[in-house]
Amino acid sequence: MIKLAAKIVLALAICCALKPAWGTTFLNSKSPSYEVDTLYEDDVFITGARIKFDSRVYGDLFSFSYEIVQTDSVTGNFMALGYSVQNLAPVVGSFRGMAKSISCNADIGRNVLLFGQEINVGPGSHIGRDADLAGASVIFQGDVARNLIVKASLAVISGHVGGNLEFKGDSLTIDPNTVIDGDLNYSSSSRATIGSGSVITGKINWKKAEIEKPKEKSKGNFWTALTWIISLRGYFIMSTLMAVAIIVLTLIPFPGFILLIFLWFILAVSGNVIILLGRSKALATTKVLEQRFFPSMGLGFILFFLTPIVAIILFFTLLAAPLAPLILMLFGVATFCGGIFASLFLGRRICRLLRPGTESTPGYLCYTIGLTAILLLSFIPIVGYLLVLLALMTGLGGLVQTYAKIKIETSSEESVVETK
Q1: What is the spatial distance between Cα 302 and Cα 296, in angstroms, rounded to a whole number?
Q2: What single-letter DSSP state applies at residue 357?
Q3: In tens digits, what is the pLDDT along the chain, a chain of 420 residues?
Q4: How many C-beta atoms surround the C-beta of residue 105 within 10 A?
């Protein structure tokens, strides 16, 4: 584990050393220092709800907002994460964004890397190097000096592509008078629609994609449930439900004890469901915590604090940016499951004190007892929050070690998880 920690720290140090920041300005839409037509001679981090950013930036611009419209030039890179992103002014560096709706209609000096549901690159866009676009619907009408890579369900291409056009998806349309100086390589279930007057200098290579047959429904297990949770659909559904629940609980002045009961009920039900779906993993993780408690805590401490930082750094790199949202989703799911298994571990300890001979039965009742104990500990000022945080870290470390196939000796009696 020491070698793993050293590798993580070394990787983080290398990533941080790639581009030292000479100066950084942090803004939000309500900050008094944010004014129209302001000149910033350093990197800018801006957050808010709906922002029209009319200032010039001599550095990198980072945006974490619901909607942003960028209308003045950026001499560095422009990186945005939110619901809607519009880039309407030149960017000397690269433009990278991830949002539901992304539009770009300006000169980009280097590369473009965009992930979204709707992506629109307008005719006023001139990209100095490569463009990599991934979304449900992609419309490209600009000019890219080198290669254009598109992964989408529906894509419409026009304008000028200086290198190769790579497409993977369902439907590709090449508008009339489009110019592609390199090859057209695409993979789809049907041939591309190529308009009259289009010029493709290189070869046209079509790889017919096979239509996936619907799979037979199988019995649910822990892996299928985890796969659904970390998928984009499952993640956004769960996030939406949690957001609605939080808004309702925030707007309606429920008494504190009702909120506590609601939280306990949600955690008890979801935790027992996860234990039901992953009985073998639950048992294996509790055994890891029993025999490697402090190593699990140390590994969890490292992962808990470094994983979000590494994911953010990866998002602002060109090649590894697609890994960032996947890492964050996996981290959130693993932390939640780790907290459940930590509660199960504590509950088994309590069950042994109350009723000896329950070592071979993790049991749903034991988990509920452990969860209740952790929630009661959280009421202790300051110390309670630290104990809950340590429980999450320890459970996360134990879960990671379980998937890393740490050899834990288990008796034949503990090979099956029973319901208690």
Answers
A1: 10
A2: T
A3: 444 444 443 443 334 333 433 345 555 555 434 455 678 888 888 877 788 888 889 999 988 888 899 988 999 999 988 889 999 999 999 999 988 899 999 999 999 999 888 999 999 999 999 999 999 999 999 999 999 999 999 999 999 999 999 999 999 999 998 999 999 999 998 899 998 889 999 999 998 877 655 555 444 454 555 555 445 455 555 555 655 565 555 555 656 566 667 667 777 777 777 777 777 878 888 888 888 888 888 888 888 888 888 877 777 665 666 677 777 777 877 888 888 888 888 888 888 777 665 555 556 678 888 888 887 887 788 887 788 888 888 888 888 888 776 544 443 334 333 333
A4: 16
So where are the chain's domains?
Answer: 19-208, 222-414
Beta-strand pair 61-70/43-53: parallel
CA dist list (Å): 298 to 88, 317, 332: 47, 29, 18
Structure tokens at 406: 């740490």
Owner of token pair 């609601």? 262
Q: Any residues with CB less than 8 A from the CB of 217 and at least 6 apart, and which?
A: none
In total, the chain counts a number of residues equal to 420
Torsion sign across C-alpha atoms 142, 148, 151, 153? positive
Report field, pTM of the whole predicted structure over 0.90? no
Report the Cα 340 to chain-centroid distance in Å.
21
